[in-house]
Amino acid sequence: MRSYKSFWLCIATLLLYSICGIAIADSQLSNAMPVGLQEDKRILELKKNVEKPVVALVLGSGGARGYAHIGVLEALEQQGIKPDFIVGTSAGSLVGALYASGKSAEQLHQIALDLKVNDVRDFKVGKQGFFDGKKVQDYINKLVEGQSLEHLRIPMYVVATQLKSGEKVIFNQGNTGLAVRASVTIPSMFAPTLIAGKEYVDGGLVSPVPVNIARDLGADIVIAVDILAQPKYTETGNMWGLFNQNINIMQKTLAAEELKNADVVIQPDLREKLHIFDIKGRETTIHAGELATQLKMKQIKSVLQRNTDLNVSQEK
Predict the structure, then answer these.
(1) What are phi and psi of 98, to 5 degrees?
(2) Could you tell me if 117 and 171 are in contact, meaning their C-beta atoms sit under 8 angstroms apart?
């Protein structure tokens, strides 16, 4: 009986690991923008304002720990700081897409508290996974009111992994929910997301905290949020623990290199295990994100001011 419960707890935990996302409709995404492409038109327009640096907010992967992203946004909003564009992987793509659609941090907080199992869970056991992901897609698209990526109020870039090639892919046009669904598709748990004849899985496999993408897109300032599990806090006494630890080690190694290129790194204290449908845990995690951001606020404002002064002096 105990092993039966453990099995379903693991399933729920892994579901939670990816669920930080939301969706829109059935139409195919119109474009996937490869890494290294020049800044798109929306960012080029932002860069015309030489008196203001272009600020990118990078929201990393981390499953249920993604609730912390909401606390980060709350703390930034309290100080009147809003990103010019957002790059999100996995859980970060979910929160980022909702925020980019025009939702306030306060609204995201309430959405998080209102989330129910049946909103996003769709069992569909097959050769490629236990879950289909269509419910996640539909849930997101409902919340963004059908807006496509290119029409979101804040430019949004969703990172996923092309399954066949293992390449990092960025979605910035088309169906918002479908892009997020691709970004949160945990291999072997969710069936791969099919887009224009190609299969995509979790963006956290190749870029768990996509700082370099933000730089490639033309950001002057990058504020990165790292919510990855700390390997030293992971239980390794069972099969699922060992599986999680392997993923944790891989992602921390990848993230460490990219985080060197961020101007500010926010790392909420997220030691405790969190179940995605645990109301109390949601509040605790959101608060951890808010607190971590408040502790970095002096540095954030200093970086913003320094870059603003530099831009003005160069223009003169």
Answers:
(1) -65, -45
(2) no
pLDDT of residue 182: 94
Give the 3-state secondary structure of residue 69. Answer: helix
Q: What is the pLDDT of residue 79?
A: 97
Residues with active-site annotation: 90, 202
Question: Given a cut of 70, is residue 313 above it in pLDDT?
Answer: no
Distance CA(213)–CA(217), nearest Å, equals 6
Strand runs labelled E in the chain: 32-34, 55-59, 85-89, 123-126, 129-131, 156-162, 168-171, 193-195, 198-202, 221-225, 264-266
Q: Are 231 and 255 in contact (CB under 8 A)?
A: no
> Integer distance in angstroms from the first to the last C-alpha of the chain?
73
Alpha carbons 131 and 137: distance in angstroms, whole number: 12
C-alpha 74/C-alpha 222 separation (Å) is: 18
* Rounded Cα gap, residues 193 and 178, in angstroms: 8
DSSP 237: S
